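Regression test attached.
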Amino acid sequence: MNNLKVDALVIGGGIAGMQAALDLGDQGFQVALVEREASIGGKMITLSKVFPTLDCCSCITTPKMSAVAHHPNITLITYCEVQSIQESGAGYGVAVLQKPRYVDESKCTGCRQCEYECPITVPSSFDRGLGSYRAIRVPFSTAVPQKAVLDMDNCLLCGKCEKACPVEAIDFTQQPQHFSIEATTIILATGFELTQLGAKKEYGAGKLANVIDPLMMERFLAPTGPYGRVLRPGDGMEPTTIAYVQCAGSRDQTQGIEYCSRVCCMYAIKQAMLINGALPLAEVTVYYMDIRTFGKGYEQFYQNAKAMGVEFVRGKVASIREDEKHNPIVKVELTEEGRIVERTHDLVVLSLGMIPTASPSTFNLLPASDGFISLPALNASPSAAQRPGIFVTGAAGGPMDIVDSIVTAGSAASAASSYIREKTGMKVPQQEVAYA
Amino acid sequence: MPEKLKIGVYTCYCSGNISHTVKCEQVAKVMETQPDVVVSRTDMSLCSDAGQSQIEQDIKELGVNRVVIGACAPSLHEQTFRNAVTRAGLNPYLYHHVGLREQDSWVHTSDGDGATCKAMHLMAAGIAKARHLQPLEPIRLEAEKQALVIGAGAAGLRAALDIARQGLRVVLVEKSPFLGGRMAQLESVFPTGEDARSLLHELIEKVVAHPSITVYTQAEVKGVTGYVGNYGVRILQHSRGVREEDSEKMIAACPRLVPDEFNYGMTERKVIYRAYPGCCPRGAAVDWDYYLDHPLRVDGKEIVLKDEPKTIDVSVGAIVAATGFDPYEPRQGEYGYGELQEVITLPQLIRRLALTKDDKTFQWNGRPVRDVALIHCVGSREIEGVDEPHEDGQVNNYCSRVCCTASLHMAVELHEKFPALNIFELYQDIRTYGRGHEDYYCHAMEGGVRFVRYSGEERPQVAAAPTGDTHPVLIKVKDSLTYNEELEIPVDLVVLAVGMKPRQIDDLVNMLKVSRGTDRFLLEVHPKLRPVETAVNGVILAGTAQGPMNIQESLSAASAAAAKVLTLLGRGKVELPPFVAAVDAEKCNGAGACVEACVYEGAIALQTFDENGNEVKRAVVTPANCVGCGACVAVCPNRAIDVQGWTIAQYEAMVDAIGMSIVDLVEAA
């Protein structure tokens, strides 16, 4: 990878980063987009349908991925990691590590012959471990770029892929490469991770067979998912009673996460509605403290779910254990009735919260008390980080849903564009009257 | 010799949205047999990069020269596929999009066979149309590198500044005489506790100082013509009536007092006034709505002020609607509002506390306040059939997003200032979702604020307490935190945490031709694909005109709006779709029926031509003004007009295909 010089560097190719890159590229700026994974698309591409419109997620995400890949002003670099950001010249010098794919990107056509020949099957991180893929593979069917990547940790070096490849793209000798990007401005779109499924021992510490995280449920519900249906992972049974435990990774001092993760109410309600379609006979219960459907159209979405028969029970779940058939048993105080009950479900989804993916310190930034990148001028320049010329979009700046992430992408792009123009001494046109 | 038709047909599964109902493989198979079809494929998600690449490859390798895609609604991805087709070197208008999702699979979920049959007909019609498609070019026009921003609240100011900083000129129009909007009425803002007006003034100073921005106060939009890139906007600006240097003596001379809306009517101000000390512009202004031509005695002379409104016409490429919100005004008697003096709204309390900042005790109507209750969700989360509908017959069934945190912020501030005060929060769900918002909830609980959870179906009852009671007001409420116990809470003051409603901007909505959602806020095209754009190209939304938002969110949305304006106008050119009327001059006899039928100014006119020495009249279309509605097509006696891309011949071919039975469709092959 050669060193690059661009107007703007976007770090993170999820929905927020892609949108920010597109907004800047469309204005004519030269943009580099770097992504840690082998494909862009972020968390959103793994989802099923998205609230409140219930659009299929790929209908929104894949065209954006494609637009990024084809954009004349955007240089897309996947499978690389930012190591440091230093002030340099008029902007920043960014050290990036290109991880070896062991596949020559310039030759690979995405034909997947290597994948078909590979004898090693590993759990698919794209399917959150529910499905499997090969040690060498195109990351997923709609991946951008459509280039294979070899997972060396699991490779036997059997050489079958090398033989199968019609264009001689396999290269076991690839080494990590360092390169640098010079950019006037940087947009951080590093996104979020879910809190740990096993973080709370009261909820089974991640050891209960039929207690899953919400992204697993997304894969069950997604048409591209591993089974194409909703099953419980413990024994493959079709669940008939499913429970959502809200605030399982948020608003919880014992986990050190005191903030609200903003998205869990809506994704739980959305999944409940989708389960209603996938398993019409299943009963879905949501155990909650407060239902926070605050966005545009969200309250109506909640009311629709109630009307569809989703049961909402107010009460903080105290603990979850399982019976001998691995059915999770939820112990909850029903605050509206004043009693504590135990209810058995076939499957429990812990509505986990969000924590930041990247440590702000990588970018020489201080984290706020919640661990996300600090935004010191929330009520003036909401996307500005502490360092001049560095802007933040999406969940890197705190838990946020897709709708809000996309708006903040536009906001960060706008701030970055203003910054580049002012930094490079652009003249502004004069109005005849300043104040009339 | 005309080029041989080679049609590529693609039936998208839409990740199951279509294929769960429609048997896409069967559809593809039948389409493959249609005349001129050289390839018929299916795809899990055609809009993905792999799907688009397949289409490009077929164009390049199989020589496909017409493309028919059956997928989602064209509003979603028609442009996506046009781009793909263009990349492969084909004219983008040689592609036709069939809506198999919204028009078929989503509306016939329980009838798979019927839906599959319908899909075949729709696709066959698409193929029939594709045979008649001709290459078209978009209409390319110069764009004004200037934008209009309507409303100078936080969002409008932010949008104006961001647009100007990125190199366009801005005209900022504000209806009131002063800048700042609703944010100026706030004191400390969550989650930082910063002073609202200090934040606002930093922004205002930058806007006013920016050489690319012109600000018009006391101004309203009176007319909008044109289209993206070239809007003509007529602005009416009232006189300020007072020179800045004369402000003090004019205010002093003004005899008339009116309710001060800045303090929500709790105080009075002069008709010649400043909104608040330090407001911008600094000079006083005349409120012409209340000015009754009364002579003012200034420097020993009697003068009468006159409003001499100016009309200003500006040309702009885009319009940003930042018209903001009004706090919900409770109905007479709603929770005792308007009937009991001790029932006020949260915005009123914020103003009252600001006016009595130095008081050591909390008083209301001369009585000490010992117990105060804040009621959440007033004018929000209303339930049809339970809550009384508003004037337009609707209830506000949306959440107003800011009131929970605003109420708790108030509770925490009250507790800090008056530690002995008993505070009750009557709520349904506490929605402190934002960064730092939950802290207010925690602090309120730690500070002893008492929470009572009511149900939207049984809202709290507020009434005057029986005479002789210790408190003037009695609230009755069922508390689901104590197992639906019926509580009676005697209080000295009830504060209604009112929601947001859109401003009364009917005229503007009509002029801009934008739509509103069921919540009556302005409607975006799509919350994820085009979150700040309206269906009217070039009209962009910023802030609470679109829906409830807090300050941070409004500013974000405003900056995003600015980015969109730059994308549209930054290059000084706009492209409009070519689907406009086109006249066949050979057939036109200048009858003029089209001109009479046309409702769009300047779209079609008769012009005189010289034809072999004879003067003849022919209809001529100005494409930029034509919207392609087809009204002219319908009335033309000679069938001399067609809408490009949607011609009569194309429609006829589509109707013929739809009219065929499936057997015919298969046999026609």
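Expected vs. actual: identical. The two ends of chain B are 24 Å apart (CA to CA).
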